[in-house]
Structures are given as C-alpha cells and as structure tokens.
C-alpha cells in the first residue's frame, strides 16, 4: 500500500477520532464479561444467567446498530455518535452512583451498554465516506481496530474490581470514555460527500437485495465469533480451568487483542489479494480451531493458544468483510453498516448465550463451540456459491479499482 497516497486520500484526524471513539465504546460494551465472575458471585447467578448477562449487551448492540445506521444517514455520523455516547455515559454514571443489587438491574445496564456496541454503525461510515474504493479495506480496518477496546476491558476490569469493587469500575471507565468523547467532538468531521437522507421505508428496500443477506450472514460468523468469545472467555477460563478472575481476564485480553490487532491487517490483505480469497481462508482456520477447543484441552495454556488462533482468523475476517461491503453498497453504507453490524451482534449474542446454556444443560461447553464451527463452514460454502457472480458483476475489474 502507498502510505502517502492513503494519507492524501482521506482525513486522518477523523480516522483517528473514529478509531478512539470506537475503541472506548467497545471497552464499555463488553464490560460485564470481564466483571462477570465477581458479579455472578455477589448476585448468586447460575451458568445460564451468567451467559445471558454477558450476551444481552451484545444483543442490544446488535438491534441498536440498525437504529444507529438509520440515524447516521439522517443526522450524519458525528452527531449520531454524540447522541449514542451520551446515553452510554449516563447509564454508567447511574450504575456507579446508585449501584447494582439484582440480576434485573444488571440486565438493564446491559441494555443501555448496547448503545456502546452500536458505535460500530457510526465509526465505520464516519471513516468510510472519506476514502475511495481502493483504500476502503485499510481505512475500515484501522477504524474497526477499535475492537481492541474489548481487550482493554478484559485486561484492566478484573484487577480494578478486586482493588476497588466491581461497581466502582463503572465510574472509573467514565474517565477515559469522557476524555475520548471530547476529542471526538473537537476533531471528527463528516465527509463533504454524504448521501442525502431518505424516507425511513427506503432503508428496508436494501433487504430485497440478496447480497445484503449474504453479508449479514458472513459477518454474523466473523464478528459474532469475535465478540461472543470476548464477552465469554473470562467466565470460561474461570469455570473450565479454575483460573481466578484477574488471570482469566489476562487470558481473555490476549485472545481479544490478537483478534483486534489483525483487523487492519485483514483489510489490507483483502485490498491486496481480494476480500473473497482472504475471507475463505479465515473461515476455514476459525472453524478448525473452534472444533479443537470444543474438546477442552487439558491445560489452560493449550486452550489459550487455540483461542488466539481462532481470534486471529475471525479478526482478519472482520476486516475482509468490510473491504467488500463498501464496494457493493457504497451509497447505502450507513444502513448497511447498521444491518451487517446488527447481524454480527446477533451472532455474538447467540455464541455467548449458547455457551452458558450448553454448560448449564450438559456440563460442557462443547456443543456451543461445535455449532458455531459448523456455521463458519456454512459461511465458507456460501461464499463459494456467490464469488463467481460477485466477480463478474459489481466486482468486475472494469467497474472498480478494488480487488474482490
């Protein structure tokens, strides 16, 4: 990639603001996962309740991504992001000030944290609209590397909870969240070429296009696997291997960091060799390691190695999907980001909740991992079915400079 050409092509300050906004939003989105061991102990939650507690913010974020995607196309990315972030800040402040004393209260907080997950539908259009097709994979990979916020939560939240109490972690999280929000308000700019807003009914027309459904399915596996594991692994390592909450958080952070840091790499590789080819390999690798980990390796470090490999594949797959989406739906990128992101969140909700229910029903996590590995194989088969049509229609060489 020509770095100078990339820097000239867009607006680097907005790209940085989009990354930081996304990063801190994702940090608080999955906060209940790293705190799950302590919360579950204090509130007396069973395996199914723990699974649903960490999965609910993912589901709420999935649904709200579509809402935020529509809002982005009406208000623009910057103002839409400001609205969502103010709601998150208010929810965390209330949880810190008044405290959480019941399962239902923690679920209510989980719903409002879904607005942080919906930041995806803001950060990606904010960055995407500044860059031409040949730089979409790299630009969206950089913005999407805000996934690394989930690693920050896993790395710091359990230790802070031990030192200050888990409810005070909500207040501590407000400090970097507010600082980055101020930076975002000052630095970020909407691109001058934003498509005009459309009547609400027009947004549902994109669902008549079968490619929209394919992208939603593909991302439900890559991002769903990433965020589902990010939300669940602290509890998994604690339950499966008896690691304390802090150590389990470190193990989770290693997995999540691996999946986050390679998202820009996945986008850049997709720019170079094509999103279809990149994504195909990633599905195969992810499925293989999910199957491996389903058999519960005898040592925690073995499971860690398998999860890191799976997360590397899923993270690169996230970047590859969003190298393709803007090529196919350039003018509908706001609503498509919301729809595809919603599907990714639903995939994450399914994985996180199914792991808890599998453990509750069978005493093992195996069924949850195997079913998700099968979904990765189905996604690979689906990609094989559509690739010829994509490369000879909207992805044909005479229509775009991007590699499909």
From TrEMBL:
Ranges of residues in domain Major facilitator superfamily (MFS) profile: 13-391
Any GO BP: nitrate assimilation
GO cellular component, as recorded: membrane
Entry keywords, A to Z: Membrane, Nitrate assimilation, Transmembrane, Transmembrane helix
A GO term, aspect molecular function: nitrate transmembrane transporter activity
Residues spanning the membrane: 12-32, 52-71, 83-100, 106-127, 170-191, 212-236, 248-266, 278-295, 301-321, 333-353, 365-386
Localization annotation: Membrane
Broad class of the protein's primary localization: membrane
Pfam families named in the record: MFS_1
Membrane-topology descriptor: Multi-pass membrane protein
Protein family: Belongs to the major facilitator superfamily. Nitrate/nitrite porter (TC 2.A.1.8) family.
PANTHER family named among the record's database cross-references: HIGH-AFFINITY NITRATE TRANSPORTER 2.3
Protein name: Nitrate/nitrite transporter
Taxonomic source organism: Thauera aromatica K172
Lineage: Bacteria, Pseudomonadati, Pseudomonadota, Betaproteobacteria, Rhodocyclales
């Amino acid at each position: 990639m020509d770095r100078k050409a990339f820097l000239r092509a867009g607006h680097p300050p907005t790209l940085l603001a989009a990354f930081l906004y996304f990063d801190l939003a994702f940090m608080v989105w999955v906060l209940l996962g790293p705190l799950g061991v302590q919360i579950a102990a204090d509130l007396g939650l069973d395996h199914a309740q723990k699974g649903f507690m960490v999965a609910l913010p993912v589901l709420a974020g999935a649904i709200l991504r579509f809402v935020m995607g529509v809002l982005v196309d009406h208000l623009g990315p910057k103002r839409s992001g400001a609205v969502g972030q103010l709601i998150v800040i208010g929810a965390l402040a209330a949880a810190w000030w008044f405290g959480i004393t019941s399962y239902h209260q923690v679920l209510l907080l989980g719903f409002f944290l879904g607005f942080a997950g919906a930041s995806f539908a803001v950060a990606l259009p904010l960055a995407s609209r500044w860059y031409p097709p040949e730089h979409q994979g790299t630009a969206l990979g950089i913005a999407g590397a805000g996934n690394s916020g989930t690693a920050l939560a896993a790395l710091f939240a359990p230790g802070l909870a031990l030192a200050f109490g888990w409810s005070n972690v909500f207040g501590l999280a407000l400090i970097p969240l507010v600082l980055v929000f101020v930076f975002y308000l000052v630095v970020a700019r909407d691109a001058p070429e934003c498509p005009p807003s459309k009547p609400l009914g027009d947004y549902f027309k994109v669902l008549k296009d079968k490619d929209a459904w394919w992208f939603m399915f593909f991302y439900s596996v890559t991002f769903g696997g990433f965020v589902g594991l990010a939300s669940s692994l602290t509890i998994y390592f604690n339950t499966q291997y008896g690691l304390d909450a802090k150590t389990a958080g470190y193990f989770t952070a290693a997995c999540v960091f691996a999946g986050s840091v390679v998202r820009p790499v996945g986008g850049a590789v997709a720019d170079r060799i094509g999103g279809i080819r990149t994504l195909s390999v990633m599905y195969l690798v992810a499925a293989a390691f999910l199957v491996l980990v389903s058999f519960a390796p005898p040592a925690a470090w073995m499971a860690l190695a398998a999860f890191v490999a799976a997360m590397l594949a899923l993270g690169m797959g996230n970047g590859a999907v969003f190298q393709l989406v803007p090529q196919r739906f350039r003018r509908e990128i706001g609503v498509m980001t919301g729809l595809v992101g919603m599907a990714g969140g639903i995939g994450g909700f399914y994985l996180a909740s199914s792991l808890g229910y599998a453990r509750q029903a069978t005493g093992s996590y195996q069924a949850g991992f195997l079913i998700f590995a099968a979904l990765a194989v189905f996604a690979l088969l689906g990609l094989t079915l559509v690739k010829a049509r994509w490369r000879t229609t909207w992805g044909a060489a005479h229509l775009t400079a991007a590699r499909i």
